[in-house]
Amino acid sequence: MEYAVLGVMVPLLGCLLSAASSTRPECSIMQEIEEERSQCLAEIVGDNQTSGCRRQWDNITCWPEAEVGEVVVRPCPKYFRFLTSFLRNVTRNCTSQGWTDVYPAPYDVACGFDSNSTPEEEQTVFYGTVKTCYTIGHTLSLIALTAAMIILCLFRKLHCTRNYIHMHLFMSFIMRAIAVFIKDVILFESGESEHCFVSSVGCKAMMVFFQYCVMANFFWLLVEGLYLHTLLVISFFSERKYFWWYILIGWGAPSLFITAWTIVRIYFFDVGCWEEVVESPFWWIIKTPILVSILVNFILFICIIRILVQKLHSPDVGHNETSQYSRLAKSTLLLIPLFGIHYIMFAFFPDNFKAEVKLVFELVVGSFQGFVVAVLYCFLNGEVQAELKRKWRRWHLERFLGSDMKYHHPSLGSNGTNFSTQISMLTKCSPKTRRCSGFQAEFSLV
Fold first, then answer.
1. Contact indicator for 339, 351 with CB cutoff of 8 Å
2. Does the pTM exceed 0.85?
3. Using CA atoms, how far apart are residues 241 and 232, in angstroms rounded to an integer?
4. CA of 438: how far to CAs of 346, 387, 432, in Å?
5. How far apart are CA 38 and CA 360, in angstroms?
């Protein structure tokens, strides 16, 4: 009977717990049950009672030793608090034949579980929808970011410190999306629960990689804010020197925190696949730097807005500079709220505060963040568009002139010289090309 109750309760509790944890939820319940079982079995070994009913673990509750005729009342297991706000009691009698069944009803009824009133189906649909949405979001982000990385790498004219920082940000989003897919396959698609207690080194390594990718993504968002703020505050600075500091912040700082967290988990909390983070005190090793990065980025956002407003309204700023700062303002306002505002909304609230709304903001909205950043900072970038148009026009010219030359047979040297000269002249003298260059200079995003 107890096993049957567990078979019904664990999936339901797992569904409800998933609102408070980004990990496989039933592990919280199973680990709690395992702790109570271990404590009960340890106490059974030390029992010396020879008459009456001995201490017993019935797979849900630990019943203490009792004399014949004694009525034992025990509170319902702690994990029933997820199902009802009124924790009740369960009762068993000690008879000459041993323990009686739980009364006045089985565990599920006695402890307040009502399958008709518990929104199991609605909860399952909600969390399934959230998982589907963030899977779609990470997929779109992965595709868009990969295309953006290819474009920024191929065109040498786009190589500069600003785009190098964007590329590192894109890579952090790509790594985060890949880590989410791997984690979901290992923890949610396998259909097994052994990792809740004993897990392979590979599973733990996967969680270390996942936590590193998440933290690195937050730190590269911080680097974007630092770079834009430095660009506005300092007129002349060594971009190369600052760039290496940005590399240390974006990739190096998360390495230190994740290494510390890994060492602590190995020696002090080596439980399961290390995916249980909400109730662990060691979770603050990861959570604190992420919260600090969110807070600093939000402060930088406010400072940048203030500086931009001052510069844009300054009478000493010329028309061209004003246009430049206007472009900077647009790009800053499009990016920094994207990675600052929706995180700051729930960053400093408890994990169980508005859990469903928090899930939507952090998992669903966050999954599309990489896609939006790729669109804003690559596909809508004036420099990128101008370079793509130039390459496209040049390719068409080469095809046209190449097909036209099939009908002429001048000398090879003359043909080669004419061919390259024509392309060069057409590229330089085309009115469309001049307009494209002007567009590039006028609407280039930061």
1. no
2. no
3. 17
4. 43, 12, 10
5. 37
pLDDT given at position 126: 81
Determine the distance from the C-alpha atom of residue 362 to the mean position of all C-alpha atoms in its chain, rounded to a whole number: 8
Q: Phi/psi of residue 63, each to 5°?
A: -100, 125
Q: What kind and span of H or E run contains 372?
A: helix 369-374
Q: Given this model, what pLDDT does residue 317 score?
A: 55
Residues 423 and 298: their CA atoms lie apart, in Å, by 49
Look at residue 196 in the predicted model and tell me its pLDDT. Answer: 61
Cα 40 from Cα 32, distance rounded (Å): 12
State the pLDDT at residue 285: 92
C-alpha 195/C-alpha 186 separation (Å) is: 10
| Contact in structure between 326 and 312 (CB atoms under 8 Å) | yes
Q: Which residues of 250-285 are buried (b: 16+ CB within 10 A; e: fewer)?
A: bbebbeebbeebbeebeeeeebbbbbbbeebeebeb
Nearest residue to 263 (alpha-carbon basis) of 241, 287, 285, 233: 285
Contact between residue 348 and residue 291 where contact means Cβ atoms under 8 Å apart = yes
Phi, psi of 94 (to 5 degrees): -100, 115
User: Sign of dihedral through CA atoms 442, 335, 135, 202?
Assistant: positive
Distances (CA, A) of 396 to 388, 392, 402, 433: 12, 6, 10, 13
Q: What is the pLDDT of residues 251-295, one digit of tens each?
A: 999 999 999 999 998 988 877 778 766 556 788 899 999 999 999
Which residues, other chains included, contact 214 with Cβ-Cβ below 8 Å and sequence gap of 6+? 176, 179, 290
C-beta atoms surrounding 331 within 10 Å = 19
Could you say which residues of the chain have pLDDT below 70? 1-29, 48-50, 79-87, 112-123, 189-199, 237, 276-280, 312-333, 335-341, 350-353, 402-446
Identify whether the C-beta of residue 130 lies closer than 8 Å to the C-beta of residue 360.
yes
Q: Considering Cα of 422, then 424, then 429, then 433, what sign does the dihedral take? A: positive
* DSSP-assigned beta bridge partners for residue 91: 73, 103
Residue 265: name the closest of 208, 197, 306 by CA. Answer: 208
